[in-house]
Fold these 4 entries.
Entry 1:
Amino acid sequence: MTDTIDAQPTVAPIHSVEQTRKVVTEIPGPKSRELHERRRAVVADGVSSALPVYIERANGAILVDVDGNRFVDFGAGIGVTTVGHTEQSVVAAAADQLQDVIHTLFTITPYEEYVRVAELLAAHTPGDWAKKTVLVNSGAEAVENGVKIARKHTGRRAVAVLDHAYHGRTNLTMAMNYKAHPYATGFGPFAGDVYHAPNSYPYRDGLDGHEAAARTIAYLEKVVGAADLACLVAEPIQGEGGFMVPADEYLTTLQAWCTEHGVVMIADEIQSGMARTGRFFASEHFGWQPDLVLSAKGIAGGLPLAAVTGRAEIMDSAHAGGLGGTFGGNPVACAAAIAVFESIERNGLLQEAERIERTLTAGLERLAKRYDVIGDIRGKGAMIAIELIQPGTAVTAKQPNPEAVGAIVEFAAQRGILFLSAGTWGNVLRFLPSLAMTDALIEDALTVLDDALAALG
Ligand code: PLZ
């Protein structure tokens, strides 16, 4: 398949945008380039854009830019529009709420929508115990609050994270990220008492879950000491780090150790949660029932909302007035979140995530047989990635190949497909589509990926 084509029309009546790709200008087109010039004068250079096409409309799995190009979106705003761009029930719920009340501040005068979101999170997060929730605005803010609550509950100082983790851009969360650049370069000094323990990365460490957990625990016991450790924060499937799926029993072994030593174990489900992996929360794939669960991104269909949910006795250790924030649990974002939970049930979105996994991994496995640059295929549901390596000798085996990732992303963008990179070494191509992504669009993207791999030479 070549460029500038209208591929496989599969328009569903609900969509206000045809669910096909279409390239009508060079990428970025003239109108995008004009906007980019305006932007360069007034938007801080620290805010970059992976693909500077300016988006005018989005629906389902498609982005439409100001030049009329239609992009197939395999990023979903980094895993945010999980139910689909401008999902109709989310739009309607938010629009209705805008008419009723936009803001009061829950800590001044409360409203039902906040309570309803907390009920839904209590019902859908793993674990059969009494749970409570605090709502905030962003993923990083959820991480900050999870740590605050764990420290208050335990009376301990230390925070542990795993290698290759990503937790945000605030001061504390910068210290919790594995990769310094670009997130932290020059932005210090950073928060102390943050410890980076080895993770489970089966493709590279070859360890089973018990061996990897033993290594993590040995580090925590030696370097931190369980008695000083407030919490261990872990992404059940690491996002920015490159979609590492831990070995079986890794997370549950760590949870058992945390429970034994009074350490709060926190699941950062910000990228992996809210139906993305074919379960409400990715922790379920591993039988992991975390003490606290952090949600954000996909929870409100694109509106800013985030949450810390967990064991009532841990959550309640924060004193009255200790948690809050002006916009946390905004009524419009909460109304959208309620619609997201309903949409997941009504539209069978957990099954849609499994369908996406089947179609995508089958296609990727076909490609991996022909291109030895594909070192690993991993992930769950609509959170799938390939790790690209320098093909060749044993010495260079598994050597990261960020150049190939960059070339594929660029090749695909020119043909109307938005792929995102990831990985500590920029060596991972990730597929993080909305659950509205059709099989036809996936097959179309696989064809373009095939061409991109062939063009690597
Ligand atoms: N925890 C697991 O994936 C956000 C970062 C985008 P915020 N990941 C996308 C960027 O370049 O800033 C993320 C995550 C995990 C925490 C966060 C932070 O969530 O909503 O971006 O603060």
Entry 2:
Amino acid sequence: MPSYEIAVIPGDGIGPEVIREALRALDALAPRFGFTARTKSYPFGAEHYLKTKEILPPGAFDDLGAAQALLLGAVGDPRVPHGPLEQGLLLAIRFRFDQYLNIRPARTWPKAPIPVNIPEEAEIDILVVRENTEDFYMNLGGVVQAGKARADIPIERGLYKGAAKVEVSLDPPAEGAFTLGLLTSPATLRVAHKAFALAEGRGERVLHCATKSNALPHLYGFWDRTVAEAAVSHPEVKLRPINVDNLAYQLSRSPQNYGLILCPNLFGDIVSDLAAGVTGGLGLAASANIGEGLSMFEPVHGSAPDIAGTGKANPLAAILSVSLMLGHLGEKDAALALEEAVGLYLNKSPRGLLPYELNGGAACSKVGDLVVQAVEGRL
Ligand code: IPM
Ligand code: MG
């Protein structure tokens, strides 16, 4: 019987609440699909940081890397300034394990109202594929003081190491700041090939590629050319570059016209929230961060400190992240069964049993119960 070691970082705010329900769904699936999943929980997040002054202790990457998958709740806490936790934990894990492929599905679900008027019979089924290691997320930046900046910033990624040396001088002097975006061909090609393969798997005829080469020709002109190079080996899918501002407009009006959308890192961050917003909302938005080694699965939503502890969190995004995790582990039937269980639960539930986010009245743990019942064929 296959056995999986799953590292779990419940994290902050509603993270532990939604992860608890996600793990219950995992436990319910294991005996039905003939696998075992052993979970090991790590306390990393705001509380740990405030107590110990460290975000990830030495050895944490080795511990996490021994698992076959990592499930993350959410990080972020009003007691900690924005930035260090996100960078030292979430982004650090993505970069350390070279999780270059970020997959973010956004689809219509039964009972989940959508804020856009689409034709009655139309459905939305978007897959945002986000490059997850480069672009403006290289963190190559600094401040300009009295018109001068001089920086020598080390670069370390799975694909390469190096440095960025930057000199800025402004006359007359001004205060400021800068961030360099960097894209490379191996990183762009690998994510583009994956995106085309995913599009082929979904039977898509078109792959939209979000860009902004009209305004930022160096960075995104390179992206466009490199994605076009990858497209040559995937003749059955047509590459359609689209400026990201236009894409945002189109998605807010006719999201049903979009399927697979490939984005560089920063646009992918924004476009995936937009895609979640025009479908069932962040409470249904799951994501996968895939690398050759450890991959990480997490709801797209944050730690929502305002509703933490109230029972109002919607665990479906975390539960659907478990579905993505099972698919990645090769448990395709279990993955599909969990996705179907979520659909069945939503379909069958009267309003009072829907998550608060969907204007219902079911607490986080109640939603978890109902999904488990659906998994077990008891709904
Ligand atoms: C996301 C988040 C992160 C990102 C933040 C928390 C750093 O918004 O996963 O989409 O920008 O990637
Ligand atoms: Mg985001």
Entry 3:
Amino acid sequence: MSSLDTLAFDNGFARLPGTFHARVQATPVPDPYLVCHSPDALALLGLDADAIHRRELIETLAGNRLLPGMDPVAALYAGHQFGHYVPQLGDGRALLLGEVQTPNGRGWEIQIKGGGRTPYSRGGDGRAVLRSSIREFLCSEAMHALGIPTTRALAIVGSDLPVYREDEETAALVTRLAPSFVRFGSFEVFYYRNQPEPIRELADYVIRRYYPEFAGLDEPYSAFLHEVMRRTAELMAAWQAVGFAHGVMNTDNMSILGLTLDYGPFGFLDAFDPGFVCNHSDTGGRYAFDQQPDVGAWNVTKLAQALVPLLSVEAASSAIQDYPQFFGRAYVARMSAKIGLPPAGDSVSFILDLLELLAAHRVDYTLFFRRLCDFDSAPGAVNAPLRDLFPDRAAFDAWAARYAAALRQTGVPDAERRVALRAVSPRYILRNHLAETAIRRAADQRDYGEVARLHALLTRPYDDQPESEAYAAEPPDWARRIEVSCSS
Ligand code: AMP
Ligand code: MG
């Protein structure tokens, strides 16, 4: 374990030429206080558990001071937003403070979001509000605990500085960690500016740092594109299997490492609805839940296009063509694991029929799969807890009889399958109403206990936590009125 003073910074991205970023100092906030933190994320940096309470660290995460070795920059990028190319985005409120080299040889970039205006802020104030910071913090750490690739969240610091959205709110900064925050849009910006050199420079940097296995190949760039495609396809499979809707799958929010990036108006499915749109601002439903795999593919084509100056057209199109196969394989594997059938033969038709059934009866997605872990495959078994989730019991019975027969054919004892299924179908997800309750207490009463409690709960999503039964339940009626938009 190291202390704050001995953190070793080696700021790879900041050392790239000024084409890629702007050197910026954060705008300080008054009297920052710690709202919550993730001990696991702290440990990634090699810091001891007490470090988070040091005034020096809180001030640093608030953007009020720098630790020795930090060299803050805002990254330049562009991107396709809702299908349209926007030539200049960039970190409008995020700042990369520095890259910590940990004793185990991994580098972690430390980024604060909400640190004030940058050259890329356009009309924005450079700030983030407590509400959206809590959502990002909780979901980042929850996704990681679910086993889904994601940027991490170290902490939130708040300040009483007023920030104006639809209403007056207060400022907060969420600290994010990732090996890299480079996005698809980081390449697109130079493609549309007709500047092949920076594309090559950035690709070389990313390959050298994050895909060194491709560096010596004859066609490193096509191997790189293919790998990003694969990771993206598999990330989409992971989202679909757990019922996660991102909400703003613009190419500036697509990670070059295949991480879930930028938690804005995301949502987990409650009742299964393939057309679920979590973002209130997405009136056309472009980023509806069931569109995500296709949007992932479309986004990969935008990356491929940006890399065309480095690639043969054949290499670019082959990466794109392989996407459906990678997505399909990963999705079938994940869903088969959730139903306990081998990922071949009948399992695909079981999965499709089941999803249709869940959609037709608006069954709670997470509850269904968790209760399915305890399915009794004996002939004639009723499986009441599952059956009760269906308004139309007969529809469930017909499916359950087929399913029970298929399970019996596998020869796997129920008890054994139960253990395997419980490791892939979580009991606890970050339902919107849970986040909302934690946000209300934090914002209205300065009570951060519920944020900490939810965070602790969601770091063990696959474990039964009997004292937290209520957190696994279907959402209350008032949850339907929660509207989540891009405002953050
Ligand atoms: P997002 O929808 O959060 O991914 O943001 C899209 C773009 O808008 C990014 O370039 C952000 O940096 C920028 N942005 C979002 N909110 C703000 C804000 N309050 N101030 C400045 N830039 C912002
Ligand atoms: Mg973004």
Entry 4:
Amino acid sequence: MRWTRAFIPTLKEDPADAEVVSHRLMVRAGLLRQVARGIYSYLPLCQRVILKIDEIVRQELERIGAIELMLPILHPAELWRETGRWDLYGPLMMRLADRHDRQYALGPTHEEVVTDLVRHEVRSYRQLPLSLYQIQTKFRDEIRPRFGVMRGREFTMKDAYSFHADEVSLDATYGEFREAYSRIFTRCGLAFRDVEASAGEIGGDVNHEFMVLVDTGESVVFSCPSCGYAASSGRAEAARVAHEPPAGRDAKPLEEVATPGKTTVEEVSELLARDPSEFVKTLLFQMDGRTVAVLVRGDREIDEEKLGRALAVDRVEMAGSERVREVTGADVGFAGPHGLPKDVRVVADYSLAGRGNLVAGANRTGFHVTGLEIGRDVEPEDWIDAVRLVGGDPCPRCGTALDETRGIEVGHIFKLGTKYSEPMGATFLDEDGTQKPFLMGCYGLGITRVVAAAIEQNHDENGIVWPTAIAPYEVEIIPLNMDSARVVEAAERIYEECRAEGLEALLDDRADRAGSKFADADLVGIPWRIVVGDRGLESGMVEVARRSARKDMARFSPEEAVQHVRANVIRERRGGASEPKSG
Ligand code: ATP
Ligand code: MG
């Protein structure tokens, strides 16, 4: 491809609205343009990268026996009503009506549609297992679309769904997908790890997220340097300790103290000269029509995802200030566990385990209590693990201090069991002659998010440094001076030879200054470059450099240059560790 024909609208300036480097570079390097919030046009360079990722995904999924199909984007509401998700999905789902006022969703995910297909077409255990996938546009009306294609409202996902007669088969396929994902991300040149995760809207128990580790990632990952435990923040478990306070301790009496106008742990801690870790925070939630008081240590936070799971509710919502006043008889900021009405369910987080002589709200405006003992002054109905971990917390498996890192979730795989097949009546005739609901797995991979994640991990101060396996072109030929017939002729010949050798070549045939061509070459990040100039040609030489290590430039004859690049590119196309990481 010739640059003058390739439609690569590079920019000299950073776009004002781009917060992360991948977004900035995708706009500047002419890969991306925004149409509306979270909605983008992928320009030709970007499309080439997407097609390469698609191809890697297809190869690795075909290898484990998954079959590609294409499901519709437009989903009738009735299907989503069958599983209750028409309501549950809430404002994240884009909805519209047709001319007859029938309701539809623009698919945010495809469990309902694929289960509907399979329940009509697959009758017998003999047809199982079955793994189907598509590469398809998804729509989610994200609250905060941001970071470019990292969190779009319209984006491309590879989603796969597997159907099984029994757990053994589901486990086997789940394991195969997990390995296929590892191969896909490795081939895309990403440093990643898979972690235990929480299921969100999709549901099911066992699930793993694939995290690309970068500081700008929106997800938080806790990992153990010693035993290998790794989990995303909404899943990471606190290490358990006995919740009884140590025996033979001198408990103090419960006493009220005046704390006028002091409503936060920090303020009361300062006033009473007690450490925040000696406080009980009492958080009131409204769940399934009941008020739940969640007790957590004063210096720690509750993770709402963990809380929902611990209490087996779909959605947790803080109680409004009206409800807080009703329940505690006090203003917000003075809630405590002691003496709450009987119909309030009290649960305690393990962060309070083993603690006594605590400070808490007194359920009286302007007062707190000291000397609070859990077990004596309040008996929690349950002990739960709902605390948000912080780096340095002990590993739940081995006790070593956990590392806290940030990551970009690029893939998420789930064992769904019968969560969808049961409500949708999707059954098959099993070997024993009975009808059973399919066991299912589902496997998502954010294609367009992978593009952004790859740039987050592979760039330098001048631009993108594409891993060869997903680069839009493999080699860029740069004639330094388009006025020189000799240079142009040599560059054209090298370009043709590259193409004849099966290399994906880009010839920068613009009449621009050499400096601005180099700047754009750095920005766009093609892994190999062949530079053709008058001075080199005098001794029959051209320069070859790789984008990731421009200083290690080497001189070759034009023929050797092509062969040198070809040999390297062939090795790098399969992906993996051949490209050094930067960024
Ligand atoms: P997140 O937690 O980032 O919102 P999710 O858990 O809701 O994502 P899944 O339902 O697990 O997402 O979707 C599978 C994959 O699709 C994700 O791992 C991610 O790579 C990609 N993805 C999800 N939402 C978006 C989005 N808004 N823009 C781009 N890619 C997305
Ligand atoms: Mg997810």
